[in-house]
Design brief:
Elements: E1 2-7, E2 12-17, E3 22-23, E4 28-29, E5 36-43, E6 47-52, E7 63-66, E8 71-79, E9 81-91, E10 96-101, E11 106-107, E12 112-116, E13 120-127, E14 131-137, E15 141-143, E16 146-150, E17 155-172, E18 179-182, E19 187-188, E20 191-197, E21 201-206, E22 212-217, E23 225-229, E24 234-240
Parallel strand pairs: 1-8, 9-17, 17-24
Antiparallel strand pairs: 1-4, 2-3, 2-5, 5-7, 6-8, 9-12, 10-11, 10-13, 13-16, 14-17, 15-16, 17-20, 18-19, 18-21, 21-23, 22-24
Length: 241
């Protein structure tokens, strides 16, 4: 009787010539005394064949067994693994983290993990307060803040977070006067706030009513508009008599 066993973290099949073993499903076969049996190991698509237990079968080629007694031969298969790395782009001093399913990545602390070939990994981005998730790149698919990576090779996924800054506008003086912003967010009387991305250029436009005496804070002068670049928290006051 010839018996084939399999070990290791990977998968595959062992077949024989003459036929009889397909292990897999059929791992034993009876042969005549003196028969020469050739065993061939074929790994599956996520594994490699790493060798035989029979000392007469070095390496990873075929194994020829002479049947002069009952024999057992083990074939070892090893799962192929690949590293997944997460890069964070933190625009304007933003902050945020990424976690993975299956577990292994908690980035910023741990941004690398080795996964078996064929594993589908979901990366979830979470912006910290005062920051905003922007985008993923290097993913096989993206749904909102979730990046899915199929581990068919070593891969890098890049997440971008951007810092949010607060713009506070106060209107002083005449009633029925307002300040509005482009992009939208500010529509103000007497005090209002909105958050904008780092580097965002915000144009504030005052209403035409009353006697306008000027802008102060992040803007100066008495023009109809005030332009603010959001590279920090900013305060603007618009004053009418």
């Amino acid at each position: 009787v010839l018996t084939v066993t399999k070990s290791g973290t990977g998968g595959g099949i062992v077949t024989s010539a003459p036929p009889g073993i397909s292990c897999g499903s059929d791992c034993t076969e009876t042969y005549l005394h003196g028969d020469s049996v050739t065993l061939t190991a074929t790994p599956d698509g996520t594994s490699t064949f790493t060798g035989w237990s029979d000392p007469g079968c070095p390496g990873t080629g075929t194994c020829v067994v002479t049947m002069d007694a009952n024999k057992t031969v083990n074939a070892e298969f090893t799962r192929i693994t690949y590293n997944l790395h997460v890069d964070r782009t933190l625009t304007g001093g933003a902050s945020g983290s990424v976690t993975s399913s299956p577990a292994g990545i908690t980035c910023g602390v741990d941004c690398d993990q080795v996964y078996d070939s064929g594993t589908s990994v979901e990366l979830t981005a979470a912006a910290d307060p005062g920051s905003r998730f922007v985008s993923w790149s290097g993913c096989d698919s993206v749904a909102g803040s979730v990046c899915t990576v199929n581990m068919t090779t070593a891969k890098t996924a890049t997440v971008t977070f951007i810092k949010l800054w607060t713009l506070t506008v106060t209107t002083n003086g005449a009633t029925q006067t307002t300040v509005q912003s482009d992009p939208s967010g500010i529509n103000c009387d007497p005090t209002c706030t909105a958050t904008f991305d780092h580097g965002q250029v915000v144009t504030l436009t005052r209403s035409a009513g009353g006697l306008f005496t000027g802008w102060s804070g992040a803007c100066t002068g008495n023009a109809e508009t005030c332009v603010v670049t959001m590279d920090g928290d900013k305060t603007v006051t618009a004053t009418w008599l």
